[in-house]
Amino acid sequence: MAHVETSSSRPYHLVIFGASGFTGQFVVEEVARTVSEGPKGNLKWAVAGRSKQKLEKVVEQAAGVLSKPELRKEVDIIVADVGEPDSLAAMCKQAVIVLNCVGPYRFYGEPVVKACVENGAHHIDICGEPQFLEGMQLNYSSQAADKGVYIIGSCGFDSIPADMGVLYTRDQFKGTLTAVESFLTVSSGPDGGCIHDGTWQSAIYGFSDGPKLQSLRRKFNHKPLPTFGSKLKRRGALFFSNEIQQYTVPFMGSDPSVVKRTQRFVAEEHQATPVQYGAYAGIGGIGNIIKLMFAGMMFWFLVKFSFGRNLLIKHPEFFSFGLFSKAGPTRKQMEASSFQFAFYGEGYPDGEDPSHGKPTSKIRTLVQGPECGYVATPIAMVQAALTILNESTALPKKGGVYTPGAAFAKTTLVDRLNKHGIQFSVI
């Protein structure tokens, strides 16, 4: 069982590392909103990062935004740097859980995971980089299990809505669910929307390192998961989706990788039927297709070369047609944005044998919520942490490196998210 109590030597339930970064500042605000949801109605927390001055500024900003002047005195500051292992060790010794907001994780993530495992702190990140996530599972899972530490990756928009959405669909299905396809649509207000370029950088390095991910996966020596029902066919690179009534492409994020790892876990540990999964994202009409084709061709060409990657990193707005920017979205843009995942599942009703014949029963569910990058992500991350603190007996029996679905399948995380604006429902 996870150790989740504070003590004189481990005074903080949560330490937000990278609190002064673009996403970190919104995680700070979300933690400040939810202190009453901590153990016994109290949450002890601190912020951490390289610059004391920047951290003070972030706490000051949160105090102003939330009209909570008491934050200035109540929130402690810890100076810690990825390049200084002793400072990370000192930070981790003081925390029950470290909320790690420092990316790209491929460059800055492993020292934090290592420090957490060695110093007995649980670790939650909001990573959308499969190579990092799977690398941490390969390299740290047995050590984390020995220490009773939970390392839970991708606890933001990547990939809690998708991963918990598939499990929710399975739990709502009356019978044996065998396959799910998800369709993501994102809406923005009159001022449009964009994503901070930290995510853009992660994508650049992720695509350039594709072959390394394949060789990493081979090291697990996984046997193929058994397929029940009809084999889920991959759709084309671009198609018109009748489900969401717009042109659609395969979803390029970490969701398929994370969901597959969860399904392997539930098959091996819970002896559940694994669910096949396909992930897609709506891109709209013809105008957006033309933009995507141009942007995609430039991206695929440039990402192969170091000079090309440097160009992509220096000019995110130009090469992404404004989708990514160094400044990130404004609060006004965030308030007017939202996302929706539509899940279409099929399987066998109770009493039918999944090993015979085609699936005859269908289900449709929705996961919808606010702006995905900087509103939904902090909500998901903080609720994941509060779930660990409040429901440690419902977590997997031993520590290790887990996906959200593997860690939280038997908790009330979905109910917690429903109360905070990320809503799961059956249609």
UniProtKB/TrEMBL annotation:
Gene Ontology biological process terms in this record: glycolipid biosynthetic process
Secreted as UniProt keyword: no
Keyword Membrane: yes
InterPro entries: NAD(P)-bd_dom_sf, Saccharopine_DH-like_oxidrdct, Sacchrp_dh_NADP-bd
Cellular component per GO, a single term: mitochondrion
Limits of the Saccharopine dehydrogenase NADP binding domain: 15-152
TM ranges: 277-303
Source organism, top-level taxon: Eukaryota
Pfam family, one: Sacchrp_dh_NADP
Protein family (similarity comment): Belongs to the saccharopine dehydrogenase family.
PANTHER family: SACCHAROPINE DEHYDROGENASE-LIKE OXIDOREDUCTASE
UniProt protein name: Saccharopine dehydrogenase-like oxidoreductase
Organism field: Seriola lalandi dorsalis
Source taxonomy: Eukaryota, Metazoa, Chordata, Craniata, Vertebrata
